[in-house]
Amino acid sequence: MSISKNPLTNYFKKKNIVDNVEEVHEVEIQSNSIEETEALHIKRLKPNELTDSTINTTDDTNTASTISLTAASSILSSSNERDPCHGSTKAKDHILLGPFQPKTNFPTVNGRRFRSEWYTTYQWLEYSLALNRAFCFPCRLRNNCKYDGAFANTGFSHWKNGRARFNDHQAANYHKEAFEIWKTGLQNYNNNTDVLKLINQQHSKQANENRMYLKEIIRTIHLLTRQGISFISSYGSSWSPRKCGLKEQRHVIFEEIQEEAGLKALTIKQLSDTRWTCRWNCLKVVLTRYPQIISTLQVMEAPESHLLIHSMERFDFVFHLFIMSEIYLITNILSKYLQSSHICISQALNQVKMTVNALESLRNETEFERFYSTALQISEENEIDPPKELRKKKVPVRFGGGDKTLNALNIEDHYRINTYYAVLDTIITSIKTRFDENIIIDVLLMEKLFLTKTLLNENELKQLSKQYSLNYDDLRGEQRLYKAKLSTSTYQSQATLSEIRLFILENHLNACLPVMDELFKILWTIPVNTCTCERSFSTLRRIKTYLRSTTGEYRLSGLALLNIEREVEIDYGEI
């Protein structure tokens, strides 16, 4: 009987409420649906199967529904990261949110359940939907398992003695310490005195300052590269006029003398072999600051300065200075106009003709007298000797003797014929030879064909067709169609190449007129000037100095690109 009685005894053995709850959670983890969990709890916790010592519960329906709600709540809320069942790690992640205090229909076990009114009395209290147990948020945050594992790790579920147990835990020193640390941390964060927050603010402040410094460095580098200036000086940080070279010392003394005279400080620019603009600027400074330049050379103690003074304190220098200043004043306008990238050959030739006419207008005695008298006046003001009569050359006695020239010129006629007229004739002849229309006649005919509304005659069309091996009849017919379409446009007497390019593309004339399209491609690829290419070489000459003798190709290309494209605006914030 003992053998057969043991199974029945074990079956009807009294079960503890805690064990029942633990079994419920084990079934929750293993089951796949709420219905299976409900069936298992009903089977294990039937009222007629409990012993007398067990606390009486409600009827079968209420018990089953309570356990079913507990299982459903556990499954639905187990995914909440703030739930105390996740331990102290998740508490640190949600320290600013505080205790997890859900307000819901708490499950009833043995007639007892958790009450939401306890949240108001105990601010540190939190509830786990997954475990149906109460926890202490500060102790769980600090992981006080060695003092009170129930409120920090496993949880508390004896609701009958809930208030007494909560009061005892609240009076414990370890709880007070954890609660004070938690409240102090929240207060520091709200008052912006939190250590991590202060470190973050300081990091942001330092990052903004570094960004400002970096932006200024980039702006300075961009300014230096646009001007073609070296990043470091050739004379170092301890600079003085006596430690620098002759060239730097000369400029410093020149500026000091101008300041003493109450004049605006001007500098003499370095001459360039390819740009006439710098020559005009240099001549203008020499002409307006001639006395100060002489004084600068007299102050300097160098052999070169004495040679320069000897050359400049002569009437020939002053007279040629006035002549070349007037010539460069006129040609400088032509030089700047030819540097434009939107001009055509015909427009450039018109500007050349205007320049030549202006130079030819200077070739008369009236203009010569003006230059000559001004040079004499400047010479007298600077105590320069006036021009002397030329020494007459004589024929040797063995060859008959006497003067070599019978009709000797006076000094004024000598400067007028042999200097003034000779200089003007040389410059005018050079400009005419450089821009000879006979050499570029084909380009002029193509510009007349495309840029104007005037028809080319038969001889001009034959010349173009012969020069570029085109069909004469096709060219003559396409010219008619092109001029008829161009006459309906809003262009005036002559358009630019850019406007004609857009006109051809918008009206699809490149496909309708193949011969004209081929001629336009030839015209488009013939450059009027080479200033854009020459600027690249001039830039490299200024950038590749002896201070950058070891500069690599990558860095040199970057410096040259910034200097050439100096007009392009750069957003330093994006960099």
UniProtKB/TrEMBL annotation:
Upper lineage: Eukaryota, Metazoa, Spiralia, Gnathifera, Rotifera
Short name of one Pfam family: Dimer_Tnp_hAT
InterPro entries named among the record's database cross-references: HATC_C_dom, IFN-induced_PKR_regulator, RNaseH-like_sf, Znf_TTF
Domain TTF-type: 110-201
One Gene Ontology term of the molecular function aspect: protein dimerization activity
UniProt xrefs under SMART domains: ZnF_TTF (SM00597)
SUPFAM superfamilies documented for this protein: Ribonuclease H-like
Top-level taxonomic group: Eukaryota
Organism from which the protein derives: Rotaria magnacalcarata
Name of the protein described by the UniProt record: TTF-type domain-containing protein
